[in-house]
Specification:
Largest sheet: 7 strands, mixed
Radius of gyration: 26 Å
CATH topology of the largest domain: Chloramphenicol Acetyltransferase
Number of strands: 19
CATH architecture of the largest domain: 2-Layer Sandwich
Helix content: 25-40%
Strand content: 25-35%
Length: 379
C-alpha cells in the first residue's frame, strides 16, 4: 500500500503544516477520499487516498511542520468486511459517544477564535478540553465559574504568513495613502438596466468589481510606474496587468490573480472573481493562482467599511481600496443633491511613485467609474 505523503510543493514553498486529519487509525478510506489537509504559506492542500484501504498509523500530528514528500501516515489493504461497510454504518459508529478500545480519536476539537463564557455544567466544556490539549501546563487557564477563560492557540501557517507579509510591507516601504470619492450613480444605473441581460448572456451577475478592474487596468496603462516595483536598485516595469483581487475566506485573506486582466472582457473578470471567491471558501485555490500580481484591489465595502488605508501587497507598489457605497449630500453645479458615494483609497510606495502621479492615477480611476463610456473608448 502507498504511504500517505505530503504533496509536491512549489519551489518557493519549503515546508508545510499538518492542518487537519479527517481520518484516524482504523478508518476505511476509498480512492480519492480526503485523508488529511496540509497548510502551506498560501493555501490548504488536500491529500486524497490513492488506493482504498485502512489507515494503520499516523506519523505526523496536527500542527507539526513537514516537508515535501514526507510520510504522514501508513495504510494497509482493506479486508472484505471493511470494503462492505457502508458510509451509513461508519457515520453511525462515529456518532456514538463510546470509543473503540485501542483506537482513541487523534483529532482534537478545533479551537474557535471567540470563546464565549461557558455554561454551568458538571463536565468540562469541549472548548476547555481543547485549550488544555493545546496549552502548555505552565499556561494559566482561569476556572470556568469566573466566566473569564483564556485560551492560547498557535497561529496557523497562513495567518503567520499574512502577519509577516503585512508587517514587512509597512517596514520595508515608504507607504502613503491618498483618498478620493466616486459618484456611483452611473454604474448603479447601468447595473439596474443591464443586469438581467448580462446574466442571461454570460451566466454571471454584473457586479462592481468588473468596472473597477477595467478602470484600474486603463489607468495602469497611463501610469506604468504604479504597475511596477522595486528590486534592489532597479525598477521592474511590466508590459502586462496581472490584477490581484483580495478575497476573504474562513482561513484568512487570500489574493488570487487575474492574469492578463488588460485582455479580459467584463464578463471574464466577473467569472474569474466569482470562481476565485467560491474556491477560496472551499480551500481549493492553487498556489500558482496566488503568485505574482502587479497591482491589487481590495473591497472592504462588502463588510461595511466606509474608509480605510489598505496595506501594500509586497512586492507590489500600490493597492486600491474600495469601500461601502453610501448616500451622502454632495454639491453639484452649486446645488446640494443626494448621491450614492464611495470613498476610494490608494496606498502606494512613495519611493517609486510620486504623490502627483498617485493622485492623478486615482483621479483617472474616478473619472472612468463616473463616466464608464471612457472604458469603452479608452480615453
Amino acid at each position: 500500500m502507498p504511504d500517505i505523503k505530503v504533496p509536491v510543493l512549489p519551489e518557493s514553498i519549503n515546508e508545510a503544516t499538518v492542518a487537519v486529519w479527517h481520518k484516524k487509525p482504523g478508518d476505511t478510506v476509498q480512492i480519492d477520499d480526503v485523508i488529511v489537509e496540509i497548510e502551506t504559506d498560501k493555501v490548504v492542500l488536500e491529500v486524497p487516498a490513492e488506493e482504498a484501504g485502512v489507515i494503520s498509523e499516523i506519523l505526523a500530528d496536527e500542527g507539526e511542520t513537514v516537508g515535501a514528500q514526507q510520510v504522514l501516515g501508513k495504510m494497509t489493504a482493506a479486508s472484505n468486511s471493511d470494503v462492505n461497510n457502508s458510509p451509513e454504518k461508519e457515520l453511525d459508529s462515529e456518532s456514538t459517544t463510546e470509543t473503540h478500545e485501542g483506537a482513541p480519536s487523534t483529532t482534537p476539537e478545533p479551537a474557535t477564535e471567540n470563546i464565549e463564557p461557558p455554561k454551568e455544567s458538571q463536565q468540562e466544556s469541549k472548548s476547555e478540553q481543547t485549550a488544555r490539549e493545546q496549552v502548555s501546563p505552565s499556561t494559566p487557564i482561569l476556572p470556568t465559574n469566573t466566566g473569564r477563560m483564556e485560551e492560547r492557540v498557535p497561529m496557523s501557517r497562513l495567518r503567520k504568513t499574512i502577519a509577516n507579509k503585512l508587517h514587512s510591507a509597512t517596514q520595508n516601504s515608504a507607504m502613503l495613502t491618498t483618498f478620493n470619492e466616486v459618484d456611483m450613480s452611473t454604474i448603479l444605473s447601468m447595473r439596474k438596466s443591464y443586469k438581467d441581460a448580462f446574466e442571461k448572456k454570460y451566466g454571471v451577475k454584473l457586479g462592481f468589481m468588473g468596472f473597477f478592474v477595467r478602470a484600474a487596468v486603463e489607468s495602469l496603462k497611463k501610469f506604468p510606474t504604479v504597475n511596477a516595483y522595486i528590486d534592489g536598485d532597479d525598477i521592474i516595469y511590466h508590459g502586462f496587468c496581472d490584477v490581484s483581487v483580495a478575497v476573504s475566506s474562513d482561513r484568512g485573506l487570500v489574493v488570487p490573480v487575474l492574469r492578463d486582466a488588460h485582455k479580459m472582457a467584463m464578463h471574464d473578470i466577473e467569472k474569474g472573481i466569482m470562481d476565485y471567491a467560491e474556491r477560496a471558501q472551499a480551500g481549493t485555490l492553487g498556489i500558482d493562482e496566488m503568485m505574482g500580481g502587479t497591482f491589487t484591489i481590495s473591497n472592504g465595502g462588502v463588510f461595511g467599511s466606509l474608509m480605510s488605508t489598505p496595506i501594500l501587497n509586497s512586492p507590489q507598489s500600490a493597492i486600491l481600496g474600495m469601500h461601502k457605497t453610501q448616500e451622502r449630500a454632495v454639491v453639484i453645479n452649486g446645488e446640494i443633491v443626494i448621491r450614492p458615494m464611495m470613498y476610494l483609497a490608494l496606498s502606494y510606495d512613495h519611493r517609486i511613485i510620486d504623490g502627483k502621479e498617485a493622485v492623478q492615477f486615482l483621479i483617472s480611476i474616478k473619472e472612468a467609474l463616473e463616466d464608464p463610456s471612457r472604458l469603452l473608448l479608452k480615453v
